[in-house]
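Narrative of accomplishments. A recurring question from our advisory board has been how the design workflow behaves on a single, concrete structure rather than in aggregate. To address it, we present the structure tokens for one chain from the evaluation set, followed by the sequence designed for it. No filtering or post-editing was applied between the two.
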């Protein structure tokens, strides 16, 4: 994740929505999401601990919403997290991003946000 990513100064989605996903994404089922960080919410779905009930705050979220945050399980996050985009980051409006930000008194992101480009390993060296 680039340091220019607006998510690094937000984190509202991680502290507003339930992060549920198919249980097959858990390590014990061959996936990458650590089992100790999830709770079963239905026969076939798990959720990140801390997001299954109000008040919501994912156990993987480190920092203060709106001031500076990071995901401590970023490389092992679920598809739900991987698919959630900040509003305008990919050129598309995401009303769920706006709703999460509003819940924390943060203004909606406005276009144009520039796409985040992570340098390839050979460009870093």
């Amino acid at each position: 994740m680039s340091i220019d990513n607006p998510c690094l100064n937000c984190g509202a989605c991680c502290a507003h929505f339930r992060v549920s996903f198919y249980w097959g994404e858990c390590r014990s089922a061959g996936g990458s999401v650590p089992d100790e960080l999830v709770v079963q919410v239905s026969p076939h779905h798990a959720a990140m601990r801390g997001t299954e009930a109000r008040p919501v705050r994912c156990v993987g979220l480190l920092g203060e919403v709106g001031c500076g945050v990071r995901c401590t399980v970023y490389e092992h996050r679920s598809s739900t997290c991987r698919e959630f985009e900040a509003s305008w980051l990919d050129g598309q409006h995401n009303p769920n991003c706006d709703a999460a930000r509003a819940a924390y008194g943060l203004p909606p992101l406005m276009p144009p946000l520039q796409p985040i480009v992570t340098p390839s390993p050979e460009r870093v060296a």
